[in-house]
Each structure stands twice: as structure tokens, then as C-alpha cells.
Amino acid sequence: MSYRTGTDIPEDMRRKLSLSEKLYNISAVRKIFLLIFLALGWQFYSASLDNPLMFPSLTDTLDGLVEVVRNGELPQRTMTSLRIIVIAYAGGVILAGLLTVFAITTRPGTDLLEILTSMFNPLPAIALLPLALLWFGLGYPSIIFVIVHAVSWPVALNIHAGFMGVSNTLRMVGRNYELTGLAFVFRILVPAAFPHVLTGLKVGWAFAWRTLIAAELVFGVSSGSGGLGWFIYEKKNQLDINLVFAGLLTVIVIGILVEGVVFKFIEERTVVRWGMKF
């Protein structure tokens, strides 16, 4: 059935959406309501438990968060963690990209990537931390090493899977334009496989973030300073549990911002604009 003009459309299809329906159709609004629901659940559960040492309330956590933000402690720790993760994440992505390009352009490269991912991808990054401490000492180079390990393999696997899934038609287009090597990779494979590439970057970021916090919880101190993980560990030892939750809440907020702002921006400017996602 087709409709030639707006007057041919039935009344129930032409009616205007109510305000509640319009709000419901906005993803950001739905997520905000879900976050409010979770916050209320947190507050009610802590009130029913009535044990701030075990589970502080949301209000106590926010009061502690404001305190450590005001005195500058939490921003300093956060910036320390962010500096480390940016360096390590970039290193892991570059390593994964080099391995994948080598794998997609040569047969020995494919074999090498398969062997390395089979060996190291199942190996928890934090398990390498004792060796990293022996090789690089107690400090940030050790943490950067384990984060690079955590990032490289999932990113490489996703990029390689995306490259292998590129259609033969697009490959032939590249060959018709006499594209070879890096030109073929960046002009044909990367755009065609970018949804997989972006997924790999997201997975790599998640791995990097949790590896950083886990490493800092144990060995994240260097010359009396440390990042968010060390902040959480210190506050646990001092029994400032509301500040422990404040540190965890900071980790969650940063994760949401990176996922909802940075990666969303990249997705909107690439896969959505290119018609790869609706």
C-alpha cells in the first residue's frame, strides 16, 4: 500500500507524537533515566543496609568526591592515569596496526599474527606485571608494558577480521587502480573494514583501562605518586570507603565519557556518515 499525499495517510499515523513519546525516542534521555534509576537504587540499598563501612550511600560518595576534587587530589591522580593510558593505548594500537598490515600483505605475516595472538591473547596482562617489574623496575614503564600487551591482541584480531571480511569486489577495485602495499591497505581495506577497526579500538580501550587500574592497585606508586588505582588502594587502607567508591565512580564516568563522546564522535563521522550503520 502506498500513499500519494499527506491526506491519504490514516489519522492514527498522522497524529503528532506527545512530549513523552518524543523524549522516549531520544537515546540520551532514556539513558539518563536509567542512570537516575540506578542512582536511586544505590541510595535506597545503602540506606537499608545502614553500614557505611561496607556500602556508603550515593550522597556520602558524592560528598567525598567533591572534597577530593576541591583539594586537588583526585584531579591529580586522574591526570596521572590518563597520561599513562594515552601513551600505552597509542603504543598498543600502533603495534596492532603494524602487525595487521604485515599480516594482510604477506603470508609469513599472517602466520606470525596467528601464532602471536594464539600465544598472548589468552594471557592476562596483569600476569606479566611481575616480569615487567624485573625488566623495567617499579614505575610507569612496567604499567605501560602490560597495557600495551592488553591492547595489542584484541585490536589486532578485530582489525584483521575486518580486513579479511572486505569483499572481493572492493579488492578488485583497488587492483584496477593499481593500488598495492600501504596504499591498498589505507585506501581500500581500512575504510571498508572501519566498523571492525572501531570495535577493536573500543575493546582495546576497555582492556587498557581495567588493566591500568588493576596494575595501579598493586604497583601503581612511583616516587610517592600514583594514579586512580593507587588512590583507591590508599583510601581502602585508610578505611575511607566513600572515597574508594568516589574513585570507582570516577573510573566509570571516564569510561562513559570516552565511549559516549570520543568513540561516538568517531562513529558519527565515519561509519554512520558512510552508510555502514543505521
Plain-language structure description:
It is a single chain. The chain is mostly helical and 278 residues long. The chain has 13 helices and no strands. 77% of the residues lie in helices and 0% in strands. The chain is flat, with a radius of gyration of 24 Å. It has helices spanning 11-14, 19-24, 27-49, 58-70, 73-105, 107-120, 129-136, 140-164, 168-176, 181-192, 194-219, 228-237, 241-272.
Q: How many structural domains?
A: 2
Describe the sheet with the most strands: none
The CATH class of the largest domain turns out to be Mainly Alpha
Low-confidence stretches: 1-7
Could you say which overall geometry the principal axes of the C-alpha atoms support?
flat
CATH architecture heading of the largest domain = Orthogonal Bundle
What is the β-strand count? 0
Decide which structural class fits the backbone: mainly alpha
Binned, the helix content reads over 70%
What string, H for helix and E for strand, traces the elements in order?
A: HHHHHHHHHHHHH
Distance between the termini: 24 Å
